[in-house]
Amino acid sequence: MVHSWTVGSVAVVCLLLGSPTRAGEKSFPALEGPYFGQPEPGLEAEPFAAGLVSLQGRYEFALSFSPAGDELLFTQQVPEETDSVYHSRTERGVWTEPAEIRLSGGAKRDEMEAFFAPGGKQIFFAPYDEGMDVRIWSLGVGPGGWSGPRELPSPLADEPVFYPTMSNGGTLVYTNLAARRIYRAEFQDGSVVSVEEAELEFGLHAFIAPDESFVLVDARQPDSLGCSDIYVAFPRPDGSWESPRHLGPEVNSRFDETCPSLSADGRFLFFSRYNEPNEVSEIYWVDSTAIARSRSGMDNP
User: Fold this and answer.
1) Distance of alpha carbon 216 from alpha carbon 260, whole angstroms
2) Which residue from 59, 67, 215, 244 has the fewest beta carbons nearer than 10 Å?
3) Cα distance between residue 229 and residue 221, in whole Å
């Protein structure tokens, strides 16, 4: 997201709004294989799909691959314009060019932060018309496509909320913007039965691991290398969260890092780095072993 909290920092059946290639323009390359056909990163963060997903001059953040690895969602914003979710999928083994997709069926002007649930049967996202009216919506994913976009009900909908990620057990972790704190919601038979603070010491955007073995957050703290860095919190035996630990220079830099997420197989950490001119962000990725080293207390190599 952009630096301020405000966004920017009907069935749906893959409504893509891409435009045809003009004469003289390069066609989109034929990308095959996992992770948008990109060479996998090592222990030092690299731009993800530079020139294809991470483009100069626009913000990109909140990336999510489907559990099967055959679909990709991320949010983009041209400075001073609206947020929109972009989508790509594999067709006959080849990735399509990312294009805008209207998850709310046109009910809201802006849409952002779309994440696949671990089972792949739901997508959660955050649409809005004006900043403080942002709420969390969901839609179903099935053999017939994507359908049934709806705002999640009260008590979750009683305040402005965004950045929704879910664990295997059905716990939804999100940001309550009114409180500027991370919250969690529990569901029963598809209904929200409780919301409460996640009791994380700090963090603005949080991504919960599918097995709830850790939570990734971004925050500005005394040990941050930039204004905002990526941290990880692990659970204590009593179920509460330890103080989040800094993920070190292989993830963080003198630039801001925000909006962490994890690949479905847990191998890669994705986040946004604001290192372009005018502090515009692009998506980076890195091997997730930095998380395991933080848990074990090992030093960076």
Assistant:
1) 6
2) 67
3) 8
